[in-house]
Amino acid sequence: MIKNIKGTKDLFPEVTCDIQDIERHLNRFMHIHGYGEIRTPIFEATELFSRSVGEHTDIVNKEMYTWEDQNGQSLTLRPEMTASVVRSYVQKQLWKIEPISKFYYIGPSFRRERPQKGRLRQFHQFGVEALGSPYPEQDAEIISMAYNIYKMFGIENLSIKINSLGSNNIRQKFSLELKETLSKFKSIFNESELIRLEKNPLRLLDSKNKNIQNILEKNTPNIFDYISNDDKNHFNRVTNILDSMNIPYTHDQKLVRGLDYYNRTVFEVTSNDLGGQDALCGGGRYDNLVAQLGGKEIPAIGFAAGIERLLIAMKLEHNQTNNTDIYIINLEDELIEDSMKISDDIRKDLGVAVYIDSLRRSLKSQLRHANKLNAKFSIIIDSDTIKDKAVFIKNMETKKQERILSNDIISYFESE
Ligand code: HAM
Predict the structure, then answer these.
(1) 10 vs 20: CA distance, rounded Å
(2) What angle do CA 299, 302, 306 make, to 5 degrees?
(3) How far is CA 37 from the centre of its chain?
């Protein structure tokens, strides 16, 4: 037996029904905020991710699904979608057409992480990217959208952490100094921590190792202490706007995020209900990425959120909801043509959900199945009635059964 790959999931209608519902809400939410959907390819040139997400990040270093195609080009399944959106924005030089572009997306991303609850190798993200505005109101719009989406889905147990990484080379400067400070304590680091110290010391800030946490606590300043007054003013304006919108948040001076493209505002929404993988969504400004990928100096900000984690936080019971309106029960082989025609006519004329049995089952078991699908009515077709150009329509709730002329089926349901 061939099984699915570890960290991937098959989703059946009980769950896809809920996901479709979420997507419908998201589409509407984005529409009323002025964001339009962008769909980019699922695989890209590997270089796109190493140049944007960052060569020394965990994602690029060890989590990407990368292969060489028949022409020797290195390709990668997208581990996130911001890089693709920016690539596409640069390729089309969209800033020449519109001073601001607001996109959203929903789709699969791939990271070879160790699978656990809320952490998959193929997971699904929705996200937004606003390219063009350097102003704090754009940051506040993005953060408030993230918050309001979770509110829309009824999630109460939320917290938003925000921070500023400053602009220019603050991140790099801080990273170098952090490395210098932590190097003095090298002897207590294990192998992977030593690699992090060497390649990407910022990743040590969220280390689970208590000793490292202690060292950080006592010996290192926060990145926020390094940022310029301009950056602080920007940050304060963002928080003032959030206050005026009643969006709750805490300023977490340790928050740096695990992707390299960020500057200024970064944020994460977490939920206590998620356990170890508590990040529902994360995002921030990336004012240098458009230029870095060959475009102009265009400021931008966005976030992305995991759909699987949203589903966990929503604690859905996955009761399938796409109920059947009418169940067609055919009792004889030679009436298959009539039954198929009747079901098609009803769907076309009334646009309701019509289920037709294709197992040639008995009346009893078809009625049982109709009940299981929550059918409101069933239409019973047999040769006695059909020869009089009629059928039986059974109201599955009241159990009342009526004989109706085939020609009157549509008007019968129209009046129901
Ligand atoms: P990220 O923090 O790497 O950011 O991912 C965003 C969200 O995707 C996470 O908060 C989490 O909910 C979900 N996620 C990530 N990895 C997994 C996984 N292995 N399994 C399940 N869910 C996962 C980004 O991807 C950035 N592109 C966000 C962004 C957009 N920044 C600016 N614009």
Answers:
(1) 15
(2) 160
(3) 13
